[in-house]
Design brief:
- The chain is mainly α.
- It folds into two domains: 68 residues, no CATH class; 76 residues, Methane Monooxygenase Hydroxylase, Chain G, domain 1, CATH 1.20.58.
- The protein is built from seven helices and no strands.
- 33% of the residues are buried.
Length: 167
């Protein structure tokens, strides 16, 4: 329908600043759009990939159905192993917190599963983190506190069986 216009490579730093500002203003769709423009100009721009991933995860609470798959699809494009693991954890953490905020039946158990999976990724990221970078530890602790604060428990190992069965 429309042919999108391209930005120049010289405009990339300013565009990334605008994308960050839109994220801070709780306008993740606008931030995502800017990141797509930056990535069209510079497909391997790591800052734009991370910003787009964050903008997508900002949309989890709004229930946008494709954001999870789109965010996960960005992970292999991140060059650094630590960042791939850290942001894999962040995607899961934010998905879990989104489930928790929706207060749907069984949402606590689903949130717990997402948060525990995030913690696993954060532990892997911690093992390969650069010196002085404890972000994975901070995020792991955040997940642990959310689980404890909300008294979350994982799904039971055994399948659900109704107490009364039809005869």
């Amino acid at each position: 329908m429309f042919t999108l216009k391209s930005i120049s490579s010289e405009a990339v730093p300013g565009a990334l600043e605008k994308a960050e500002r839109y994220r801070l203003l709780n306008e993740p769709e606008l931030a995502e759009s800017i990141c797509l423009d930056v990535l069209a100009a510079e497909p391997d721009n790591q800052a734009a990939l991370v910003m787009q991933l964050l903008a997508l995860t900002d949309q989890f609470r709004g229930g946008h159905p494709n954001c999870l798959a789109q965010a996960q699809a960005l992970l292999p494009r991140l060059r650094d192993q630590y960042e791939r693991l850290y942001y894999a954890g962040l995607i899961r953490e934010r998905r879990g917190l989104a489930h928790l905020s929706q207060a749907s039946p069984g949402g606590g158990r689903v949130a717990c599963e997402w948060l525990r999976e995030a913690m696993t990724y954060y532990e892997q990221a911690e093992a390969v983190r650069p010196p002085g970078n404890d972000n994975a530890i901070l995020r792991w602790n955040t997940c642990a506190r959310a689980i404890m604060r909300h008294h979350l428990e994982p799904e039971p190992d055994e399948p659900y069986r109704p107490a009364l069965e039809d005869s």
